[in-house]
């Protein structure tokens, strides 16, 4: 036995185990969740829901404060003297055109959620506004769009920009490994960043990433199943959802294995083309005049009331609503920051800090506002014109995975639009998942910018299996709960990471 412990074979096995400990731990947790869900011994969704309720009751304000801090942090850095610093050497140029860069960060950063909530969220707020606002009124219409814009606009992209900027700066400017723990070198030193503290930070980053992406995969699966049911009368059940996950997982693993320049970039460009195509079609077949009016008017209202809506004073008086909407969104975006931040950092070498922040926040925010103006108007306009009663609209919004297909059925060419939307759902599914798979493989390969295909395949399977486990145990509510729980510790990591970034920037020789 002692002879074996001293052998080279044993040493190689121990090194392999140490190097892949994080991956093995997650494989164990996913198998545990699947077994628990399948046998019914306990419901993992119930556990996450209990934890989510505790966080909402005690720490909801932490999510609100942190997301506003991220906006302040972003703009301070962008328009300070540090804005001209390049993410890389002074003579390096961006690897990707602005169009390809935007396509990849947009697909990775929002994904399936845009289709899932694009129709459902505005009509929910329109039919179930807060406080004394009358459902179906002009005031509720303003509330619906302002709230939707807030949840999908500047706030989430500011959180992405802070994490992405920190990673890109240290990775390309200081030549550190592509890991979240590398951001903290100015605060804790290089040795501790590679030790227990650094490994804990990277573990939380992986946990947040897997949770956030699995949430989106689960939501996307539910909506694809609903679309198949609407168009082809295919039943909505877990068996069909398992088939959907299996098919799409094989596709996103293939694109992740193909690499950024080939698979991920190509599918992201296709995804962007389809997204803008479906927006254009719906703009034409929908109430075009009302869409334009809402786009202009509600965008003005959004920026006019930005400070007030950001602090959510009204929402604090309605904690259940706040937990279901704003806190869920802020937690969801925070849980996505490690992988989206890492991914947009990976594709942003050669850009200046100012270009990075303005591009990451500005372009996707504008796209989201246009998206919700179009699809939100498709639903709310039916209620305003009396085509559908407010109560019927409310019932449609309560089942967000079918909302788009039910609303589009009231407009011309609904079958064609629904089929294109199904394809778009699949490409959104793939772009989010393949980006996450690539990044997770980097996280567990000591920051290697070109991780092995074996790691990509394994992480793709982990994401898919976790989504399956959560669908089996809790459905949409279980998915949302896990995202909120996973994001909570990462609030502190992002804030400390920003402090570390500032400490490093101050040492830059800027004239």
From TrEMBL:
Short name of one Pfam family: BCCT
Keywords attached to this entry: Cell membrane, Membrane, Transmembrane, Transmembrane helix, Transport
InterPro entries, sorted: BCCT_transptr
Compartments where located: Cell membrane
Membrane association type: Multi-pass membrane protein
Membrane-spanning segments: 21-40, 60-80, 101-120, 154-172, 201-220, 240-260, 272-292, 327-344, 356-375, 416-445, 457-476, 482-506
Family, as annotated: Belongs to the BCCT transporter (TC 2.A.15) family.
Protein name: Glycine betaine transporter
Source organism (scientific name): Clostridium punense
């Amino acid at each position: 036995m002692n002879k074996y412990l001293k052998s080279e074979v044993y040493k190689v096995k121990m090194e392999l185990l140490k190097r892949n400990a994080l991956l093995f731990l997650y494989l164990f947790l996913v198998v545990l969740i699947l077994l628990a869900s399948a046998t019914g011994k306990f419901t993992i969704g119930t556990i996450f829901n209990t934890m989510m309720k505790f966080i909402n009751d005690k720490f909801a304000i932490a999510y609100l404060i942190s997301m506003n801090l991220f906006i302040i942090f972003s703009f301070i850095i962008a328009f300070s003297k540090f804005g001209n610093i390049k993410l890389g050497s002074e003579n390096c140029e961006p690897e990707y055109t602005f169009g390809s860069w935007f396509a990849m960060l947009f697909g990775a950063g929002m994904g399936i959620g845009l289709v899932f909530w694009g129709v459902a969220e505005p009509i929910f707020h329109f039919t179930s506004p807060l406080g004394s606002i009358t459902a179906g009124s002009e005031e509720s219409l303003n509330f619906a769009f302002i709230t939707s814009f807030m949840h999908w606009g500047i706030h989430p992209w500011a959180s992405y920009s802070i994490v992405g900027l920190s990673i890109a700066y240290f990775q390309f400017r200081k030549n550190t490994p592509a890991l979240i723990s590398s951001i903290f070198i100015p605060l804790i030193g290089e040795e501790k960043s590679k030790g227990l503290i650094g490994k804990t930070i990277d573990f939380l980053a992986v946990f947040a990433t897997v949770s956030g992406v699995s949430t989106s995969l689960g939501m996307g699966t539910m909506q694809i199943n609903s679309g198949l049911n609407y168009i082809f009368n295919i039943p909505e059940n877990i068996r069909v959802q398992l088939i959907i996950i299996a098919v799409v997982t094989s596709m996103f693993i293939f694109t992740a294995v193909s690499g950024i320049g080939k698979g991920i970039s190509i599918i992201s460009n296709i995804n962007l083309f389809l997204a803008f195509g479906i927006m254009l079609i719906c703009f034409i077949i929908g109430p075009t005049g009302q869409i334009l009016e809402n786009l202009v008017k509600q965008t003005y209202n959004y920026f006019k009331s930005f400070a007030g809506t950001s602090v959510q004073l009204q929402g604090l008086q309605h904690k259940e609503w706040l937990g279901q909407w704003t806190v869920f969104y802020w937690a969801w975006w925070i849980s996505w920051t490690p992988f989206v931040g890492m991914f947009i950092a990976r594709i942003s070498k050669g850009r200046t800090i100012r270009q990075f922040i303005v591009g990451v926040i500005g372009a996707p925010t504008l796209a989201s506002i246009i998206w919700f103006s179009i699809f939100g108007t498709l639903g709310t306009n039916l209620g305003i014109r009396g085509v559908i009663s407010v109560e019927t609209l409310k019932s449609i919004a309560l089942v967000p995975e079918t909302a788009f297909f039910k609303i589009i059925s009231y407009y011309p060419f609904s079958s064609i639009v629904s089929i294109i939307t199904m394809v778009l759902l699949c490409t959104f599914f793939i772009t989010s998942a393949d980006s996450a798979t690539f990044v997770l493989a980097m996280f567990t390969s000591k920051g290697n910018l070109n991780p092995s295909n074996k790691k990509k395949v394994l992480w793709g399977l982990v994401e898919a299996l976790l989504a399956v486990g959560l669908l089996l145990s809790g459905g949409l509510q279980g998915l949302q709960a896990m995202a909120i729980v996973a994001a909570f510790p990462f609030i502190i990591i992002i804030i400390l990471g920003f402090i570390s970034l500032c400490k490093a920037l101050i040492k830059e020789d800027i004239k």
